[in-house]
Amino acid sequence: MMDTFILAAAVILLLLILASLARVVGGPTIGDRILGGNVVGTKTTVLLLLIGILYSDLGMFVDIAIAYALLNFIATLGATKFFLRRRNTDEVLDEIFHQQEDAVDTTKGGPS
Amino acid sequence: MTLVAMLLILAGLFFFAIGVLGILRFPDFYSRLHAAGKSDSLASVLVIVGVALYNLHDFSFANVLVSLKILLIAVFIYVASPTATHALTRTALVLGIEPWEKGKKRR
Amino acid sequence: MKAKLVTFVILLIFWIIMSGMFDGFHLTLGVLCCLLVAFFSNHLLFTEAHPPSLRGCLGFVVYLPYLFWQIIIANIQVAFIVLHPRMLDKIDPHLFRFDTVLKRPLSKVALAQSITLTPGTITVDVHDEQFTVYALTKDAADALPGEMEQRVARALER
Questions:
Q1: How far does the CA of residue A105 sit from the closest CA of chain B (Å)?
Q2: How far is B2 from chain C (nearest CA, A)?
Q3: pLDDT tens, A67-87?
Q4: C78 touches chain B (CB under 8 A)
Q5: Rounded CA gap, A44 and B44, in Å?
Q6: Which residues of B, range 63-82, sit inside 8 Å of A by Cβ?
Q7: Do B26 and C87 make contact, defined as CB atoms within 8 angstroms?
Q8: What's the pLDDT at A111?
Q9: What is the distance of C-alpha A61 from the center of its chain?
Q10: What interface predicted TM-score (ipTM) does this complex get?
Q11: Are the Cβ atoms of B72 and C134 closer than 8 angstroms?
Q12: Which parts of chain C sit beneath pLDDT 70?
């Protein structure tokens, strides 16, 4: 009886993961996509525990779940940091190119 | 004990569903964070505690150790989830994602 | 020294729960690893200026049930808003700022995490004494800093 219940819970969880994938695929902004990935990861951690009960080998699956939770957290932090870093690089590049254009303008306009 | 575990898992699934619905329905990124950050952490902790309780139905020392490990995941999620939310909010602000205001169209 | 000892004990408990082995080889390995890590990186867990204290630990334990109750209230509120058919009328998101009286970094972190987990508010940024908070509704914004800050102050400041 309990096994059927756990199986049903796992299937529902899987459907919820599919629903939140819609946000990952269709999210209008980058933040929505990262958030969707984070949510899917949290659900997967729990799903791994339920699978562990179904295989009646919880001791092994708990280790996998811990590793997955850690990876999920670090992946989210890494993704956010990456986009912060990219923004800063963009700003720096913009400044550099503006300076170059200014320099070209002055050399063109200089002699005349 | 099995009944309590079942109830906890059911409550956890309900809050997971609320979280997903919130992510799909809310109008902008920041309010989606509300749904995801709060519902997800409580829901996963409920299911995790339910699994830990169910694991104790045949009582042995090894099983108590496994249940402690499962509770460790819960503690970790409670520390990690607000931190991830915080990082996401800051990134969104720096990237210039605009908050939704009353009267605007949803995105 | 005290910080190193407490770090060592915490790490050793963590090792024992994680490994689940009680033979001499694994325990010796664990003690060696924990000693090394505690010796080299104790300042990551406790800073020298604020060594661990029994009183702070007890205060945190007293604070936890209140936090958990607030989390449950927050989730019921989010569930109500999400399931409401005319959701857009219910929410009025906006950013606001407030200054805190907390001094220790640990209690500031605790307050920031608690704000994120409790009804209708998310911490965006903590800069010195200034908290920037994103609130989902007007009521949630008015409730801060209020009771939660006092409770954190009582639990972790001394």
A1: 31
A2: 23
A3: 999 999 999 999 888 887 766
A4: yes
A5: 10
A6: 66, 69-70, 72-73, 76-77, 80-81
A7: yes
A8: 47
A9: 23
A10: 0.85
A11: no
A12: 47-53, 56, 87-88, 140-141, 143-145, 157-158
pLDDT confidence of A107, banded at 50, 70, 90?
low
Q: Is there a cis peptide before residue C145, judged by omega within 30 degrees of 0? A: yes
The residue extents of the domains of chain B are: 2-95
**CA distance linking residue C60 with residue C9, whole number of Å:** 19
Q: Are B19 and B43 in contact (CB under 8 A)?
A: yes
CA distance A80 to chain B (A): 6
What was the pLDDT predicted at C49?
A: 63
Chain A residue numbers with beta carbons less than 8 Å from the beta carbon of B16 are 13, 16, 43, 46
Average pLDDT over every residue of A30-57? 89
Comparing C52 with B98, the larger pLDDT belongs to B98
Residues in chain B whose Cβ is within 8 Å of chain C: 15, 18, 21-22, 25-28, 30-31, 33-35, 37-39, 41-42, 62, 65-66, 68-69, 72, 78-79, 82-83, 85-86, 89-90, 93, 99-102, 106
CA B106 to chain CA mean position, Å = 25
The secondary structure element, H or E, covering residue C135 is strand C130-135
**Residue type (1 letter), C15:** W
Distance of CA B82 to the CA centre of its chain: 10
Q: Which chains touch B (3 or more CB pairs under 8 A)?
A: A, C
> With an 8 Å Cβ cutoff, are B80 and A65 in contact?
no
Task: Find the mean pLDDT for residues B15-42.
Answer: 84
Place of tokens 């205060």: C59
d(CA A42, CA A20) in angstroms, rounded, equals 11
Question: Edge-to-edge, what's the strand order for the sheet holding C121-127?
Answer: C94-99, C130-135, C121-127
For residue range C63-83, what is the model confidence (pLDDT) as tens digits? Answer: 888 888 888 888 888 888 888
Looking at chain C, list the stretches that DSSP marks H as alpha helix, in order from N- to C-terminal side: 2-19, 24-41, 54-83, 87-90, 105-117, 138-142, 146-156
Rounded to an integer, what distance in angstroms lies between the CA atom of residue C13 and that of residue B72? 12
φ, ψ (nearest 5 deg) of residue C127: -130, 110
> What is the residue extent of each domain of chain A?
2-109
